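Hey L., structure's done. Input below.
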Amino acid sequence: MNIVKPESIAVFCLTPGGVALAQQLQTYLPLTCYCSQKLLVPGFVPFNGTFAQTVAQAFGEFSALIVIGATGLTVRVIAPLLKDKTLDPAVVVIDERGQHVISLLSGHVGGANALTRYLAGVLKADPVITTATDVNALAALDMLAVQLDADMLEMRSGVKQVNQMLVSGQPVGLFWDHGSLPEPGAVWPVAQCDTRGFVPVDSLDRLPDGLAALVCVSLRHRLPVLPLPVYKLVPRRVVVGIGCRRATSFQLLIGLLQQQLAKYELDPLALKAIGSISLKADEPALHHLSACCRVPFNVYSVSELQQHEHLFPASEFVRQTTGVGVVSQPVAWLMSKGHLVGDTLKEQGVTITLGVTH
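Output:
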């Protein structure tokens, strides 16, 4: 569950009471606390210009913002900064006496609801949470996506539609496609996820009567055609180790990666990261691939890869060029902690090895 990275929370204090309350919260969480020059105390940071200007700067730098002050003022300050519910940071408002903690923005994906509950517990305050699924003690599709680190096509509209069905009392099925996990016997962490309100579905061949829609948690690129709206939630689990010649084209890399994913029927949305040897840290095509797939690009040193190269067939040419006899396989091995998928693709000077994280 996304409860906001504790090292990435900014607190804004507007009054002496707010400063005192922030100092109290500092004993529970590592916070970056801002206030005016007039209120400055040791360990706090002065506003960079006005309160509004400082919030604007922090909006893109922190995963959560806490304002100890008025809700109306906070709304006016953050309104011009809003972009998208999947991108905006969590925003929580606390009154200076610490009686109410209000989840104002990004309650689910940003983690504001979870942060609100935590802060209310610390302060013995009233948590104010107004998202419909929480009020009705139901799960939410966007929270399930956060818990699974998952993505889906048209996420914004899908979340809106499914959550509306749930709060309206329409039956929404939930199918865990354990068979889509490449390793035999592997299962999704059902018990660790909030599924309140969803109707469990054991098989796509035997759907319960009257379902309004179905959510499928799966890595599969394609699901069977079903007689109802289907929302596929794809956890980010697939990692990719890549070896390539210098100046390999992006078009070749993306084409071969798509080919390898299709071979094992894996949805491209399942990509979690790509990686290569540190010698490729400045390879343009790999950086372009990372940006295009919206995943991190990780690099590993020769010494790190040498520890695992004995597990795979080596090439003396590759060893002379890079210092290690094989690249993509030990990279994928390290990224997946030994859970590789299928065979390594070797084509046109490119090697691609898939792995799956647990």
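The first strand starts at residue 9 and ends at 13. Residues 238-356 form a domain with the Nucleotidyltransferase; domain 5 fold (CATH 3.30.420.180).

-- N.
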